[in-house]
């Protein structure tokens, strides 16, 4: 993949660095260090795109179970190395369900404002 001139605003991965090292003569890359005050957002957006691609490649009948296992493994790694979350509160429940709403039955028949 030859890098073309243009605006990128991309985090430099090892693969991209190798491509930048092989830029055609006459082309110049302009880079900057990630600002530590913004790093959490930049890194989280990168991980979201990367992980989405990884999870999309999971196939089979037990696709959701495998995807949750990958997510929980990453959460465990983060908890063990950074957060020290011994309770496992960040782990995804293995049933793979989402909370959509919490209702109060006492208010179910109340008129809406």
What descriptors fit this protein?
single chain; 113 residues; mainly alpha; 3 helices
Label the overall shape. Answer: elongated
Low-pLDDT residue intervals, each spanning 5 or more residues: none
How does the helix and strand content classify structurally?
Answer: mainly alpha
- Order of helical and strand elements: HHH
Mean pLDDT: 84
Task: Please state the CA-atom Rg, rounded to the nearest Å.
Answer: 22 Å
| Helical percentage | 40-55%
Q: What's the end-to-end separation, in Å?
A: 58 Å
Number of strands: 0
Q: Mind summarizing the main beta sheet?
A: none
Task: Note the beta-strand portion.
Answer: under 5%
Helices, by number, come to 3
Could you outline the blueprint of secondary structure elements for this entry?
Layout: H1 14-21, H2 39-56, H3 63-83
């Amino acid at each position: 993949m030859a890098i073309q001139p243009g605006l990128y605003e991309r985090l430099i991965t090892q693969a991209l660095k190798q491509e930048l090292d092989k830029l055609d003569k006459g082309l110049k890359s302009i880079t900057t260090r990630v600002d530590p005050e913004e790093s959490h957002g930049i890194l989280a957006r990168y991980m979201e795109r990367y992980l989405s691609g990884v999870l999309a490649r999971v196939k089979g009948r037990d696709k959701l179970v495998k995807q949750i296992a990958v997510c929980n493994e990453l959460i465990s790694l983060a908890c063990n190395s950074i957060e020290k979350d011994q309770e496992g509160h960040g782990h995804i429940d293995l049933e793979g369900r989402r909370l959509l709403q919490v209702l109060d039955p006492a208010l179910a028949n109340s008129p809406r404002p």
